[in-house]
Amino acid sequence: MKRALKYFMQKVTIKMRVPSNTFKNKNYNEMKNKILILSILLILTGPLFAQNILSGYLETAAANNPALKAKFNEYNASLEKVPQVGALPDPQLSFGYFIMPVETKNGPQQIKLSFSQMFPWFGTLNAKEDVFISAAKAKYENFEDAKSNLFFEVKSTYYDLYYIKKGIDITLENISILETFKRLALIKIESGTASGVDELRVELELNDLENNLALLKDKWFVNSVKFNNILNVDNNSNIEIPEILWTDDLQYSRQAIIDSLTINNHQLKSLDFIKESFAHSENLANKQGTPNIILGVDYTAIGKSGTSPNVGRDALMLKVGITIPLYRKKYSAMVNEAIIQQQIIEDKKLDKINVLESLFEKVYSEYSDADRRITLYKKQTVLAKRTIKLLEIEYSNSGKNFEEILRMDRSVLKYSIELEKALADKQASIAFINYLMGY
Fold this sequence. Notes:
Largest sheet: 4 strands, antiparallel
Strand content: 5-15%
Number of helices: 10
Radius of gyration: 39 Å
Helix content: over 70%
Structural class: alpha+beta
Strand order of the largest sheet: 1-2-3-4
Distance between the termini: 30 Å
Shape: rod-shaped
């Protein structure tokens, strides 16, 4: 992006170097305005385009990541439990055949069919459904937390890759600069105005840079494999990295983030639904301590023998029954268990809030530090480059201070790489804070 902008401005500058009387002042001013607008657009749209690329990677991760799919399927599986517990118990149907028929005045009893259905007390089935609906909601929040964590991993790894790529680019550029210094040193040595030690010093610096470059390339390979595995795509898939990383700031105040964290964090919301599930379990335990109603019908087939006028007439009997929950200790224990579980979840939530707030303070400190480092290294880079220019002029004239040139070149390299690291660290901190907030 920088190179494209530089090339564009060079072309524009060449076109603008025309005699003042070639164009009217109006046309000249219009051209300058258009150039300014185009330049601003090139600067602004670069980071936006890069953010769109990252958004595409996030969509790919959400669609492909197997761990996230597993979390979503856990949620779907938990939903299937709701119709299971909300259904009535299976009815009972029995068949009996009298091997030795029982004689009645209407005839011998030959076959008996019995059908019965048990109905839980009013509201019991709804209470069971509520327990598992809340549990399913907790599973969904676990899925959302896994998705937020996945997005943070994609972003943080992407920022690492950006930093590594910029480190490679800056190192290659520095190697090229040192090669220029080496040629300059050889010229000064041949003219007798410099020592042969200067060439050896450049060689030492080049060897160090070549080693650092090899290390950065190894890091790029490792992190690119990690990134593609998170996306669940081929390890050799190309990864697009921007030339300039965007410089977004946190959109909320410190207190607003803490407030949002305690309300919107998916881990806390999951605990809320688990507690809600145990509250429904308490209600269910009270319901289970009530009688169940049994309705049924018996049909008896009567044989055709006997003296009664109703001989051979089959018998039909309706029956009603209830279960008697005599053993109350069991139901009391179920209620107490549900109450204790609610207190356990409440304690876990308070502990989780403390952990999350501590994490936030740590990451917020890292965010502030990265922001300060960006300002610092921008200033230091400018000053170091100005210093090295002056030293180059002095060396060209007198052949002195070559060691100082190399030392300052190392400083430029360090500040340039540290600036990119600070940019990546700042965005990674923002990504983690967004994860804590449940985004």
